[in-house]
Amino acid sequence: MMERPLSRRGLLKLGAAGTAGLATGAGSLLFGRTAAAEPDHAGHHAMTTVGDIRPGGFDPTAFLTAFDRGRESRLPSGQVLREYELVAEEREIEVAGGVFYPAWTYNGQVPGPTLRCTEGDRVRIRFTNRGTHAHSIHFHGIHPANMDGAFEMVQPGGSYTYEFDAEPFALQLYHCHTVPLKRHLHKGLYGAFIIDPREGRPPAQELVMVMNAFDTNFDGENEVYAVNSVAFHYQRHPIVVRAGELVRIYVVNLTEFDLVNSLHLHGHFFRLFRTGSDLERFEWTDLVTLGQGERAVLEFTCKHTGPFMFHAHQSEFAELGWTGILDVRGPNA
Amino acid sequence: MPEGRTRRWLLGLGPLLLLGLLLAAFFRFGPAGVFRKAFPPVEELTIERITLPGPGRIEAVAVNGGPEAVTVSQVLVDDAAWSHEVLGERTIPRLGRRTIRIPYPWVEGEPLVVTLVTSTGLTFSADVAVATQTPPPDRRYVATFALLGIYAGVIPVFLGLLWLPFLRTLRRETVEFFLALTVGLLAFLGIDALIEAIETAGRVPGAFQGGGLVVIGVLGAAFGVQAVGATRRAAGTAPGLWLAKLIALGIGLHNLGEGLAIGGAYATGEIALGTSLVVGFLLHNTTEGLGIVSPLAEERPGLGQLVQLGLVAGLPTVVGAWIGGFSASPVATTLFLALGAGAIGQVVVNLWRLLGRAPGAAGGLVPRTAAGFVAGMAVMYATGLLVPA
Questions:
Q1: pTM for the complete prediction?
Q2: CA distance B343 to chain A (A)
Q3: What letter would DSSP give residue A154?
Q4: What is the pLDDT of residues A279-298, one digit of tens each?
Q5: Contact B121 A4 (CB under 8 A)
Q6: Main-chain phi, psi angles of B97, to 5 degrees
Q7: Of A147-161, B147-161, B314-328, which one has max mean pLDDT?
Q8: What is the distance between the terminal CA atoms of chain B, rounded to a whole angstrom?
């Protein structure tokens, strides 16, 4: 193996000598070539990004189960009041090992914190804009026109308080509604917003998955796809769930530029509650396709243990980062 | 006088010393910051070469021709993130170069795209038009190109030499026609080389200044040929022979550039060295051989000298192809094509002068020389049609 590059050089020298003078460029042509042996890579193909993101920043694993229920108190009427703080700020985030993206964030993270409340709660979100562009928060759900975040733009340094009764119960979402919309969305101003039904959902291991993507070179197409921002994170750090226990995944599609995104879970079928706004009717499937802004609640119980892949069934998205592994372990493992 | 010499050195180096001090002060005390923007500089990375050393293996060579260091963070092949190995640091300094090995199961005969994603998320791509295993640099490869060079470079030149007895039977006016034809051939070749040099210059990473390389190559070769010509003439070499040597040199440089391009294209699977390509080169370059011998119509050069002419003109194709196959770089190809263009240009000027000065010549442009000139270009064009690459 080591001999080959050496004999290559020898050959070139011979050739150069043969045409005295005319080949004086040969030496400079070779400049910079490494003489290292070539390891045999055959059989080691790996569709993945290389390297992990820096520790200490956004942790996609922690994000799966992080719910911001706000500061809870009671109004004189007895209604539950939940108060949240959201701050728009610009921050560079790492979306794949060593690839940094100049994001616009809610509370310094993409996706923004998962806000959670119960139907009928009064929610009060104090929004401060510490960015350099106007922003807003547009919540999906039923609320007054001036709480919709579509017309009242919050200028840099300004703030606005959104207040409304949470309805209807569903998996909602929130995002900036400032134009140009494409830019304000793909830069990262979005998050999941869960309004639980009054009677609650059955107890389960709950996971939040925001399908998103990043156009890192700003050419109108995404270079990096993921759930919860970091390419292949859950492939490198599989999500551990217990067999025999109910698993519930809140899936929100906030992918920009591509019309649809999807989630396919290997080795399982799940109950698919579209928009999560109905507790009775569901579809029984293993693949859910969602348009931009659509969301769904998936429920399933694992029968077999072992690693199960889940990924976008758009192969291109899967290969650009949107692939993960569910590590199903036995009840006592 | 030693004192005088010291003084001269001081006077010569003084401004350089001051320049150094100024630069040091500039970086130490500023205002360097004034010229630095708040956002990161635009990165520039060029994938200079992609080779497929074997099934399931891709090798890409990236060159940083931009203003600042660039870090390669991820690699995509055909829009899929792929594992890879960067030989050396992931951060490539300005003018630096890195080889990246990607274990990817490429498909024979199909195109593929390699994309490098930098730390700032910018992407730099290069494609392989037809994926096929890069010929290993073994004996067979070397022999293939030696054979190509002999067919495309050496044999045509020697065939051209065989026209020498024929040229000697011709009347002076007819010889003038053939000389003008040679001027036409060479002018076509020179312009062709210049255009190719400019095209290749477009693929040269920015910092290496493709345009500058073309200018240096063309003017450097032109002046070099002129200077060599003047020396030879002073040494008393027969005018026809030195002109023939200059032509051989110019064509040799051109063929070196051409060989680099052929070798590079072959190594990266852009061309298959089919029979038609070899036949095309054979016919095309036989006219080059005619060009070399036409100034010798009235001289009696030795056989050794004729062989030398043939080798100088033809062998560089072989050498160029060898080098190009192992390490084609747009920088080298641009430079050699430009050198060829400049050398041929200067030879054209010399030949035209010879045409005007020949004893009894009508001098310069007359109908038969004009016809010869156009015919030369037409022959080059027609035989060029046979070269598919």
A1: 0.78
A2: 13
A3: B
A4: 999 999 999 999 999 999 99
A5: no
A6: -145, 140
A7: A147-161
A8: 62
